[in-house]
Amino acid sequence: MSLLTHLLACLFGMGSWVSINGLWVELPLVVPHIPEGWYLPSYLSVLIQMANVGPLFVTLMHRFRPGALNEAAVIYAIIGLGTAASFLMAFFWKETVVVAGAPRSVALLVLTFFLATVDCTSSVTFLPFMMRLKARYLTTYYIGEGLSGLLPALVALIQGVGVVRCINSTGSFNHTLNSSDSSLTFDLRAQYQPANFSAEVFFFFLSAMMLVCLVAFLLLNYHPSVARERPSYTNEGKEKSERDRKWAEQKPMMDPYRPASQKRRSSFGTGLYSWTQVLYIFVILAWANALTNVVLPSVQSYSCLPYGSNTYHLSATMAAVANPLACFIAMFFPVRSLLLMGALTVTGSGVGAYIMGMAALSPCPLLVNGTSGGVIIVLAWVLFILTLSYVKVIIGLILRDEGHGALVWCGAVVQLGSLLGAVTMFPVVSVYGLFSSGDPCNTKCQ
Question: Which of 59, 144, 223, 342 might form a disulfide with 14, Cβ 3.0–4.6 angstroms?
Answer without folding.
Answer: 144
